[in-house]
């Protein structure tokens, strides 16, 4: 699942997961983390939680949504490939169950520094996309986690307003420069033409 950003006043928050259900009777909560590794919990001791309407994706605009509330991480552990969180002040199952469905956020300025060749997913959203020939293709609008071996898909909004689903595999990303706000891609043969042709077929003026 992609990392969504939200801003409250001057603070930028990054979506990292969701609470799924209570575990046991001592206030532990099962957390689904969108990051590739739960090790982020060793670096960040404070989490920010926000309740979301059932069946909805988190609202990035915290000026109109409930602001995230701060919670202190008491401990966390792995149990059968699941992350179990213990928060300070959370002592029983009823309190833990009340967090079911809450989204988990961290402050962007508290995230650990990525490795030299890595970037956070939220840094990719909004990048201008170019082909290896220098032609502008569009803008990265959103990201998808297909759930298949962690494959990441970028949703690129093309210059003709077409939606392009781009498999962000290393062999297809020629250059990524978040400081310059651009990414150069070398997509599989025929991929871009497929989406442009589909857009033309759906345009009554060109049918």
From TrEMBL:
Any one of the GO CC terms: ribosome
Subcellular location: Cytoplasm
Positions of the PRC-barrel domain: 117-192
Keywords: Chaperone, Cytoplasm, Ribosome biogenesis, rRNA processing
Keyword flag rRNA processing: yes
Domain spans labelled RimM N-terminal: 16-109
Cross-referenced InterPro entries: PRC-brl_dom, PRC_barrel-like_sf, RimM, RimM_N, RimM_N_sf, Transl_B-barrel_sf
Extent of the signal sequence: none
GO aspect biological process, one term: ribosomal small subunit biogenesis
Lineage: superkingdom: Bacteria
Key word ATP-binding present: no
A GO MF label: ribosome binding
Entry function: An accessory protein needed during the final step in the assembly of 30S ribosomal subunit, possibly for assembly of the head region. Essential for efficient processing of 16S rRNA. May be needed both before and after RbfA during the maturation of 16S rRNA. It has affinity for free ribosomal 30S subunits but not for 70S ribosomes.
Subunit-level organization: Binds ribosomal protein uS19.
Record family assignment: Belongs to the RimM family.
Family annotation (PANTHER family): RIBOSOME MATURATION FACTOR RIMM
Domain comment as written in the entry: The PRC barrel domain binds ribosomal protein uS19.
Protein name, as recorded: Ribosome maturation factor RimM
Name of the gene this protein is made from: rimM
């Amino acid at each position: 699942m992609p990392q969504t950003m939200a801003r409250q006043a001057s603070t930028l928050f990054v979506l990292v997961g969701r609470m799924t259900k209570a575990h046991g009777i001592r206030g532990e909560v099962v957390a689904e983390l969108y990051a590739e590794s739960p090790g982020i919990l060793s670096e960040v001791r404070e989490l920010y939680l926000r309740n979301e309407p059932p069946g909805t994706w988190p609202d990035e605009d915290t000026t109109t949504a409930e602001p995230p509330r701060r919670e202190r991480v008491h401990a966390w552990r792995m149990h059968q490939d699941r992350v179990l969180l213990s928060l300070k002040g959370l002592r029983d199952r009823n309190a833990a169950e009340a967090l079911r469905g809450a989204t988990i956020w961290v402050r962007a300025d508290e995230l650990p520094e990525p490795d030299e060749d890595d970037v956070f997913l939220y840094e990719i959203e909004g990048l201008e996309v170019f082909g290896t020939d220098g032609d502008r293709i569009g803008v990265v609008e959103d990201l998808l986690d297909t759930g298949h071996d962690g494959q990441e898909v970028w949703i690129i909004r093309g210059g003709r307003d077409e939606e392009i689903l781009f498999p962000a595999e290393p062999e297809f990303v020629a250059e990524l420069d978040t400081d310059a706000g651009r990414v150069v891609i070398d997509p599989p043969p025929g991929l871009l033409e497929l989406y442009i042709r589909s857009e033309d077929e759906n345009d009554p003026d060109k049918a």
